[in-house]
Amino acid sequence: MATDVQQTPFVKQLASSDRPTREKALDSLRTYLTSSRSFTDLELLKLWKGLFFCMWHSDRPIPQQRLALALSHLLLPLSTSLFIPFLTAFWTTISREWTSIDALRMDKFMRLVRYYVNAAFTYLSNHSWDGDLLVAYLDLVEAIPLSPTNLKVGDGLRYHGLDVWVEELSKVDVKREGQCPVDEIMRPVRKLEKDGRTKKVRERARECLADDRLKDWRSSVGQGDVVDNLHDESESADEWAGLDD
User: Fold this and answer.
1) Exposed (0-12), middle (13-18) or buried (19+): which is 140, by Cβ within 10 Å?
2) Which of helix, strand or coil describes residue 29?
3) Distance, CA of 114 to CA of 195 (rounded, Å)
4) Mean pLDDT of 94-98
5) What phi and psi values does residue 243 have, to the nearest 5 degrees?
């Protein structure tokens, strides 16, 4: 049954210590997600609840890394109609569970978040940075992981998102040929720097905007100049004092 998706064998088998079993389960899940059927938001949330706990129970560093990478690669073959709903279920699950993740498990979930930031940029790059897809993705990022005001999102998730945002983008847009809309991609960070509820969050966003790697991007339409001015523009704006940590 669709409502029991988290109990399907291939979800349970993803946590197996046996690599062939995991790979077979991933193939089954990939086929399931790329089938012609549609998925409700509830089905995707149930799926991600199951995948979250597969990651939770995954032991040893190498299998954890392989599982995190494999889960992030589930995003890449999805249809454009499923891209945002699947990511919404992912970020909803991660933000809901983030504060309950213990110190011993935090590294593997931080890696999963990093890989998903990379996979989302890779997907958008593979779709030529489609404007509608990009706007929808950035709206999602502003609503959940880098939300300035969502009280359900822990600051730890915001900090980690900021830490990996530019780094993972730089891994995807290696050639710096001017196709990547860097100014638009930094929109959630600028919003967080302006409207973040705490001083520390705003400072971390400001540090992200000042990342020297942003200067590496160049564009035939002068986007490099825009990127150079991202931080200057944010500093010149009237800053809300907000709440001190």
Assistant:
1) buried
2) helix
3) 24
4) 97
5) -105, 130
